[in-house]
Design a protein that fits this description.
The chain is α+β, with helices and mostly antiparallel strands. It is 40% helix and 18% strand. It has two domains: 150 residues, no CATH class; 35 residues, no CATH class. The C terminus is likely disordered.
């Protein structure tokens, strides 16, 4: 029987450092979290402006990016915890009863429905010495080509700056279509990767260790 491979061997990510995803092949990825735009509620002129802004965004870039939509079940536990704290602060029994009834309503509503929330990301690639491309189906998969052998700390900082310049260009271009984009930090990227590779574990909290 052939030896089984560890799950980690199928994950193309080597490490996440300073807000940068470093792939096993030496490629780099930055992740921008983007706001959403309710296109259907916009006027016709506003819709045209958004489409024109998105065209400008695509034409501005001289590298490929990946737009990722991440769906997950809404976690209301923090909200319920906040309501529980507020209930204890109420000075009248009537307010406490109303808050408890409201919390029970929220729990029953969520348990009877799959309330999903969608998060939008733009993955920006940079591969030292190569024209960076992203596989349309797997944004964190390695690029095809020769590995970069210069992996010292100085090289990392140089490549990180190049990646951040690309991310800044993408972020500023997205503003033309009314989308605000902010880069994810290290812990936020780790959580996103965990959620992406553990789809059946969406509701459990992420515990990060140093």
């Amino acid at each position: 029987m052939a030896p089984t491979k560890a799950t980690q061997s199928f994950v193309p990510v080597k490490e996440v450092r300073s807000g940068v995803v470093i792939l096993k092949d030496g490629g780099y990825r930055g992740v921008l979290m983007c706001s959403s735009v309710n296109f259907a509620l916009k006027s016709e002129n506003e819709q045209r402006a958004i489409i024109g802004g998105f065209q400008t965004f695509l034409n501005t870039l001289d590298f490929s990016v990946e737009i990722v939509v991440h769906s997950r079940k809404m976690d209301i536990r923090p909200y319920l915890s906040l309501l529980q704290e507020r209930a204890g602060e109420q000075k009248t029994e009537l307010m406490r009863i109303q808050l408890r009834e409201y919390m029970a309503f929220i729990r029953n509503f969520i348990e009877g429905s799959d309330i999903m929330t969608k998060l939008f990301y733009v993955v920006v690639p940079y591969t030292p010495g190569l024209a960076s491309t992203v596989r349309p189906d797997l944004p964190f998969m390695p690029s095809q080509g020769k590995k970069d052998t210069n992996t010292g700390e100085g090289a990392f900082e140089e490549h990180r700056v190049q990646l951040e310049q690309r991310m800044a260009l993408a972020s500023s271009s997205l503003q033309a279509c009314g989308v605000r984009a902010v880069p994810l930090g290290t812990e936020e990227i780790i959580e996103l990767l965990y959620r992406s590779f553990n789809l059946g574990d969406q509701e459990n909290p992420i515990h990060l260790t140093n």
